[in-house]
Amino acid sequence: MDKKVDTNDRVYRFSLQVFYDRLKYYSNDKKYKIDNKIEKFCYENLEENIKEKAKNIKKRIFERYTTITFPWSIFDIQDPEIKKHTDALTFIFDTEELIYTSVTENLTITQKEIEEIISLYFLLYRNQNLIESTKFLITGIMLRMSLKAFKDAKKYYFKNNQETLYIELESLENKVSYYETENKKLKQEIGSFKSENDRLRNEYKKSLEKRIVEMEKEIDGLKQELEEYKENEKELFALRETMFDLGRRNENAAVYNAIDKEIKIPHVKALIVGGHENWRKKLQEELPASFKFLDGNKENFDIHILHDVDYVFLYTGYMNHGTYYKIMNYCKKNNITIGYISSTAVDLVKYELVKKIKIQKD
Hints:
The protein has ten helices and six strands; from the N terminus they run αββααααααβαββαβα.
């Protein structure tokens, strides 16, 4: 570790030069010339006149020898000098017990790739010699196809290399272990959530059952209050009938002699409910046509009979509770004036009606 580096060492200086050249190569990928020297070939950055020269040379080669469309099309050239050059290159493949056509059987070559090789020839030699440019093209095609095959083999090797597979397997095993741990944690959390859910469900059930019991007690209490209310209503109704009966007798005695036989009843929209059928018929003959009559025991009467009346007069005799409450509820909701009739004599009834209508208007 403490040994000093010998800067004059041949291997050391060679390594530095290699690293420098590679750095210079990759840092100038947009240039093919540096200080008028070709440092890195890049077809895309060539001048257009060089590209045109390459296309012209390619056209002459195709016209003179053969059209090259596959990597092995070079073997179709029968010119003796060029064929000798091609055979020499294939013999080099023999040294490694390889056959060029087998190496390149799955490869293709494009016209642009052919033009790239020819443009490099012109860039280096600055001539359009047909024989030499064709030999350079054949060499370039065989070398380029070999490089393609090498890249494919290298890619396949690293993709299927045992060491790489071990690394990938280890990575997968680590992932499996991680997900197994996470799965275990999630199962524990699910168990906790389930327990909490059961606890909350039981609490809610108990709370709901308790509330149901309380509401049932409230309902029973309200039912009892309703029954008491109905009983009170019956008592009030009976008391009201008694009061009306007493009032009828007193008023009949007080006003009978003072009644004007020619009492004029106002033409108001009114409904008289209750009383005996014969009594209602007598009143119908005496009262204006704007008065309507309803049987007090007809509990299921059509409510529309009340839609256009301004007054409702009740004679509680011959009237059941259902009819009475139905009339009262409707009149209260629709602000219809309610009056009570206490007399049975037609003249006294007329007197009561006039008096009650007059009081209401005043």
